[in-house]
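pipeline stage [seq->struct] | target=Ribosomal protein uS12 methylthiotransferase RimO | organism=Cystobacter ferrugineus | residues=461
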Amino acid sequence: MMTLGCPKNRVDSEVMLGTLKQRGYSLVQDPAAAEVIVVNTCAFIGPAKQESVDSILEMAELKKTGACSTLVVTGCLSQRYGAELAKEMPEVDHFLGTSAYAQIGDLLAAEASPRQVIPDPDYIHNAQTPRENSMPSYTAYLKISEGCDNACAFCIIPTLRGGQRSRTIEDVVSEARKLADSGVQELNLVAQDLTAYGHDLPGRPKLHDLLRELVKVDVKWIRLHYAYPRVFTDELIELMATEKKIARYLDMPLQHASDKLLLSMKRGRDSKFLKELLTKLRARVPGLVMRTSMIVGLPGETEEDFELLKEFVKEQRFERLGVFQYSDEEGTAAYDYADKVPKQTIERRWREVMAIQKRINREQNKKLVGQRIEVLVEGPSEESEHLLVGRHEGQAPEIDGQVYINDGLAYPGEFVTLEITEAHDYDLVGKVVERPNPKDRVLKPRESFPLPVAAAPRQAS
């Protein structure tokens, strides 16, 4: 199973893994040994599409040199280009769209299955759908809704994923309990638009209603990802400020600071609203770590617009920032905009914003030297077996920096207190000063290995 793109796509892969496991399939770590290979693709922007195509072709080679007899391509690339891919890639046996991932077991079991299964995107799994967590046993993603009702000018996702489909509070909580029972300590809530949760359900529950129930589940951290800023209730802010289980961390894509660009992006709010919301969040949620993303190079972005963006980044001093270079995607409103920005200009603007953010990160990290912070230990570092690595409350899995532990012992999945001894651009170094008694550890069985994931390149923090 090869997964590309976002954590929401990873959850779809986990449902496919759970479904196939029920059918008697077992996961192998070496692609060359696999009889069935599934590539779950991303088609969000140009580089992601290219990476998906390259990955498919790489796996297709294993039909000649490995054990592979069936190659399945799923996800956003199939949804968007299924017919074209079927013509151009005869080596692929099946293409599944974004709403067909749970049907993979039926597809592989049937003697005469269709080559393309690409229904309109209208499905979302529930707590009863088989799912195999591919993350380390102490953390998991929890998808609370699928699809999106926004119409951002640069984004193809509503076309590929369909309109908003929220899961009921009871269903989300049921899955959260299952994950907690399996040893998960950190729930990472994901959706295309987290703050729109529930508006499509009877009674129109809101995100804060869901969170009030989720905090009753036996986990340590609940982390909020992809919170669209258009609707952000005072009840939600209050809950973030007062409920210890909700991590002091918020992933809120803002995209720009120029009112002209925000309008042409169809973001629904102006820069004054965004600045006031950020001020309110900082004032009411002490120690909040803010992650956001920006886009440079949207058609019509002038140097004046770009200067506004740079000033905004300097003024707000976000703890985490990812910057996307605008990608011209057919089927989006921005594709038809005039005044395209040259690629070299887009790259220069990207470098300039990232250089500003790098300085901010370094300054913020230096302030943590000498402080004591709680860290979730993840295990040995990939760089050196002599170092452990972990994350503090302000570091999300896979996308943010890490904390390296060069002094002291700890188990993966354990929460320990570190004293920070060094600060780097994105990462920290510390020593263990306090940890739980190892004799108190509760070991829970785990049947599968974490699944190998080819993720999109990490956005610099």
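stage status: PASS
auto-comment: Confidence is low (pLDDT under 50) at residues 446-461. The longest strand covers residues 372-380.
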